[in-house]
Amino acid sequence: MKMVQAIIRPERLDAVKKALEDQGFIALTIIESKGRGEQKGITLEYRGKKVEVDMLPKIKIEVVVHDEDVEKIISIVRGAGRTGKFGDGKIFVMPVEMMAKVRTDEVWT
Amino acid sequence: MVISSGDTAWLLASTALVMLMTPGVGFFYGGLVRRKNLVSMITLSFVAFALVSLQWVLFGYSLVFGHDIGGLIGGLDFLGLSGVGQSPAVIVGTELTVPSLAYMIFQLVFATVTLAIVTSVFAERVKLSSFIIFGLLWTTLVYDPLAHWVWGGGWLANLGSLIGLTGGALDFAGGTVVHISAGFSALAIALVIRKRMGFGTDMMEPSNIPLALLGAALLWFGWFGFNAGSAIAANGLAANAFVVTNTAAAAAALAWMLLSWWNGRPASLGFASGAIAGLVAITPAAGYVDPLAAIIIGIVAGAVCYYAMIYRIKKGLDESCDCWSVHGMGGVVGALLTGVFATTAVNNYSGLLAGNVDQFIIQVIAVLVSVSYAFIVTFVLAKVLDSTIGMTVKEEEEYVGLDISQHGERAYP
Q1: Total domain count for chain A?
Q2: Residue B203: which pLDDT band, with cuts at 50, 70 and 90?
Q3: B37: which of A10, B140, B195, B404 lies 20 to 30 Å off by Cα?
Q4: One GO molecular-function annotation for this sequence (chain A) (predicted)?
Q5: Which pLDDT score, from 0 to 100, does residue A48 have?
Q6: Are the C-beta atoms of B34 and B12 separated by less than 8 Å?
């Protein structure tokens, strides 16, 4: 099992969520966050002075899937989340050792 | 005529009521935009208030209520409020029971709220500096002439005699001057300036619905001054205007809510938008119709404005605080129905129901004139400004939000 963490633009959330749903990936967790990438956010020139806006609002989506689904998730998030401009986000994949349900005693390893 | 302390007290109180409508518009629109533009949206209304306050004192009042020049515009007799003092106001040859200064300040808050209403179309993308220049020109070129035509002794007030009919355009508190002009100006601007980035594809959630509802509440409250104050007296006519204003707002709020319920869920914002649609529609009629007619006017306005909003969304028009569908179309409904329901039981005017066809024809012409004038002049003005100084911010400024990019502030940490 793997956890896919996708950091995306807040305004693309609906599209990404829908695209995941269309491919059968329903369960997910969403965290509202702020952050900056390599560009250090956005620098505005306003009235001759520079305004640094380096902590931009982002959404982090977390999905836990079987190993063979990881590529599919990445391509779905790219397809629905990409605008082609700086700030589209990042996707991280990490191993998940175990998943246990709260409601029942089921466990997946 | 002598100054009546009762009339003056009511007019000054009404002025204070109407003043609250301008920030009310800001809170209403502010709650509808995304959180990164909340400060900007409220500030636009405040800026409109201050800007038009000065324009009105310096020359706006004179252009509207100065001596009539060819039915088109007022003269410069009251420039810088010269001659506008504590003695009774004389408006279009009639001496009133209130001081000129009280009448002037009451009319001032009408002009300010009208520009604030137009800010709907600028939501989330206007450059503040361009808005200030636009606002000054718009209120001078669009609002002032229209207000003179209807209230300052201009040609619309005497329309009947110009076309061989009896009567003039009836607009008790600004259906044409305030709402049609703001609404159709917003429509013209929406066709000129670029849409917001991601409009129609990205999520654009309202930042704060309770704030929008608070704005709507302030509007409803202030509107009692807007309409009942327009009697320019503390009398039975003011009471009639007060009652029909509340009645139409209630009817329209429920009409809109029921329609949205029928099509999905009864949203609170639907209720609030409906209330505003009803308040808009009763505005021209408030001094001429009775409470039962107000119910019909409210229901019709709620329905027409609701479907106008649906039409706007279908057409992909980025006029997302709905100045056109609520104020513009509500103003059209109100102006036309004034010509239907006006009754001599309320005031000295009758409408179509009482067999007065002339009045209805005059109302139709007044609507066509105010729609065309506001739309055409604003379209040209917006085109000129957008192609010279540019009306909208750069894309990255819009992305970050106008709160940070225009004001260096944030609504929420």
Answers
A1: 1
A2: confident
A3: B140
A4: enzyme regulator activity
A5: 65
A6: no
3-class state of residue A94 by DSSP: strand
> What is the span of the domain harbouring residue A97?
2-108
Question: Nearest CA to CA, how far is B409 from chain A (Å)?
Answer: 11
B203/A10 CB distance under 8 A = yes
What pTM, to 2 d.p., does this model score? 0.92
Subunit contact B202:A12, Cβ cutoff 8 A: yes
pLDDT (tens digit per residue) in B166-178: 889 999 999 999 9
The number of angstroms, rounded, from the C-alpha of B370 to the middle of its chain's C-alpha atoms is: 13
The DSSP line for B37-68 is: GHHHHHHHHHHHHHHHHHHIIIIIHHHHHSSE
Provide the β-strand partners of residue A4: A63, A93
The CATH number linked to A38 is 3.30.70.120
Q: Is B316 left (phi over 0), alpha (psi -120 to 50) or beta?
A: left
List domains and CATH numbers for chain B. 5-407 (1.10.3430.10)
- Which of A:39-78 have CB within 8 Å of B? 42, 44, 46, 51, 53, 56-57
Q: What is the pLDDT of residues B295-322, one digit of tens each?
A: 999 999 999 999 999 999 999 999 989 9
- Residue B310: burial class (beta carbons within 10 Å; 0-12, 13-18, 19+): middle
Q: Does A37 touch chain B (CB under 8 A)?
A: no
Q: Is B290 helix (H, G, I), strand (E, B) or coil?
A: coil
Note whether B321 and B216 are within 8 A (CB).
Answer: no
How far apart CA B126 and CA B40 sit, in angstroms, is 9
* pLDDT tens profile B103-125: 999 999 999 999 999 999 999 99
Residue B157 class from Cβ within 10 Å (0-12 exposed, 13-18 middle, 19+ buried)? buried
pLDDT in tens, A2-27: 999 999 999 999 999 999 999 999 99
Size of interface A-B (CB pairs under 8 A): 30
Candidates B329, B328, B248, B330; CA nearest to B288 is B248
Instruction: Find, among B145, B105, B100, the residue nearest to B16 by Cα.
Output: B105
**Which residue, among B357, B289, B292, B370, has the nearest Cα to B329 in the 3D structure?**
B370
